Amino acid sequence: QLQASGGGLVQAGGSLRLSCAASGRTLSSYAMGWIRQAPGKERELVAGINDRGRTHYADSVRGRFTISRDNAKPTVYLQMNSLQPEDTAVYYCAASPSLLLLLKASYDFWGQGTQVTVSS
Question: Is the per-residue pLDDT at 82 higher than 90?
Fold first, then answer.
């Protein structure tokens, strides 16, 4: 089971750090991703990281967001800087056997989301 946390309300230009904790299983061999969904918009993979630390970012967040993982905990993080109102969404974490499958929106595990709201 995956549980996302760390969301909240922040002003434009601010920062938040999301965490995704895995319970009941080890996910060290999985690619992990952060997916967001805003009202009326399609789901978007914003960042992914595979088991060897290779990362992928959506163009909309590259340079502002950083994904990382700590397999010892096990937890995946999303550091979000320079937040903008268009980043407002529910953020979910997910696990896939590979980064490629993550990009194809094929998830083995999917967690509860955390709301991120950016005010202008």
Answer: yes
Residues in the chain: 120
Which segments of the chain are extended strands (E)?
Answer: 2-5, 8-11, 16-22, 31-37, 44-49, 55-57, 65-70, 75-80, 89-96, 109-110, 114-119
**Predicted confidence (pLDDT) per residue in 40-69, tens digit:** 999 999 999 999 999 999 999 999 999 999
Q: Helix, strand or coil for residue 1? A: coil
Q: Is 93 left (phi over 0), alpha (psi -120 to 50) or beta?
A: beta
Residue 83's pLDDT is 98
Amino acid sitting at position 109: F
Our measurement of the distance from residue 48's CA atom to the centroid of its chain's CA atoms, rounded to an integer in Å, reads: 7
Q: How far apart are CA 6 and CA 116, in angstroms?
A: 8
Q: Tell the burial category of 17 from Cβ atoms under 10 Å away from its Cβ (0-12, 13-18, 19+).
A: middle
Q: List b or e across 1-14, with b for residues whose CB sees 16 or more CB atoms inside 10 angstroms.
A: ebebbbbeebeeee
Give me 83's structure tokens. 């937040």
